[in-house]
## 1
Amino acid sequence: MSGATGHALAIERLSKRYGSFTAVADVSLAVGQGEFLTLLGPSGSGKTTILMCIAGFVAPSEGAIRLDGRDITALPPERRDFGMVFQGYALFPHMTVAENVAFPLRVRKLGAAEREAKVRAALDLVQLSAFGDRLPRQLSGGQQQRVALARALVFEPALLLLDEPLSALDKKLRAELQDELKALHRRIGRTFVNVTHDQEEALSLSDRVAILNHGKLIQQGAPAELYERPATRFVADFLGKSNFLHGTVREVFAGGFAIGAGSTRVVTAAADSPPLGSQVLLSLRPEKMALLAEGETAENSVTGIIESWSYLGAGYALNVAVPDFGTLRITLSTWNAPIAPREGLALRLGWSAAASVPVLDDAP
């Protein structure tokens, strides 16, 4: 298959209403050539509706969709030249693997020799060249998903749309196919738009992630940017786990500020500081805290008691009751954990000023 450069997609002020219910509200997004964009959000966030509008299966109430600057909002799906991979594979059970992959080419009336060559190349791409004569029921779930990918790519579409393509697989297989899908994207250089509610999948696969909730675009950016600098409580809480520290701004200084909660002071690094006396919410990831040994210091420290703990294989998850902040969650690596966790154990937690990030409190 050719490694053609992907196409650029623009979604401009897209809205979709069903009667009085608004599924998507004024969403604008730009997807660059060859980019892997993931639409991430909980059920009902509007991500699948946006994907269906891109595909042409759903007509937007307002807004426009442009491919390389050309308005395609009113084009029917068959004229958009987009490949699509569905959650349930949607393979024809009575057709062989090769016949399934060849189906889009038959619809486009390609000759037999050209069809064979393209099917062979597509199956090579997903490492299934030896499975062309098998029926879908003779394949594993992961193999069936790779057939669906080959079928979506065989006609070299302008865009590849992925509707939760890995959600039906078990965790280990899902992780393996994430690696394969990411490598595939890099090899062929096409533009991918993916929908998922799985945070790990979004972080590992994407060049950029757009986080949605209640039909609105909340934040978009590179995975590391979103994880390290979430803009709102929802983003911090949905994309991984986070502790939230409420307090009042008591000091402002160059490069940051300090909040107070009861008798506890927390220093935070920030380019822009809120005014003195304002209420602030900080997000603090569990892995960014450490246990402090006797006499050890940190920019921020609190004392607490272990309420409960869990063994997670690679790490421990501790729930620690801390005065002024309630229960904080901390994760420790098991191989070098400085303690053996037990309920009721007293300890000190420390973290840097850069670890806690101010976020907008958008909790309902």
## 2
Amino acid sequence: MSSLNGAEGEATREWANGLEPVATQPPADSAAAAVTSANGLVSEDALPPMDLRSGYQMLINTIEVQQEVIDQLLERVGDLEGKQANRPDGPKSIDWATLTGPERGTAWRRLVRFVEGLVYRYSLQREILPCWWQHGDAVEELTALFSARERAYDVSADAGQPVQWHEMLERTRGRVAGALSSCRDGHVPHVLAHWMAEDVRQQLNAAINREGATQGD
């Protein structure tokens, strides 16, 4: 059997004699490249170059600033929602399906004032015709626009809501003009006095009763 030489042979002889082999020291250049030194600090050679470290720090600072802005915006939104929820006198949407009596009359007067002001303010005489109040679809469109403006210009509204309202106005103008397109030479009443004939309505009611009975089973 060939003899062992060098550090390997010495370690083998120590092990054979019952001694713990002594670990060999790494070369000087390997020790310098270690991630941590004896006192637990990160070795300078293990860190990225200075230009990368500066870039990392700038990125961290930017993220922290953005997070502060996000937190402030979320806090502001929460405050606005709280103010709106705690205001029983705040603006409310008009629902013609539920309004009756004096409340309905008050809503009509408010809507009329709004539409007349809208026509003159935005020069909409050719789009919103004087017979608008005789067209249910135009009434609903203008009512929604009115309710949205009440909210957009409320004291608790965000500064960007008036801009959003004007975008809504632009979309609503085309729909209202379309609803009134048949009245360019004067109001044209709806041709159909009754949309659904009585026999068809009876068939509908019978179908609803059958559907209800099926669902109940």
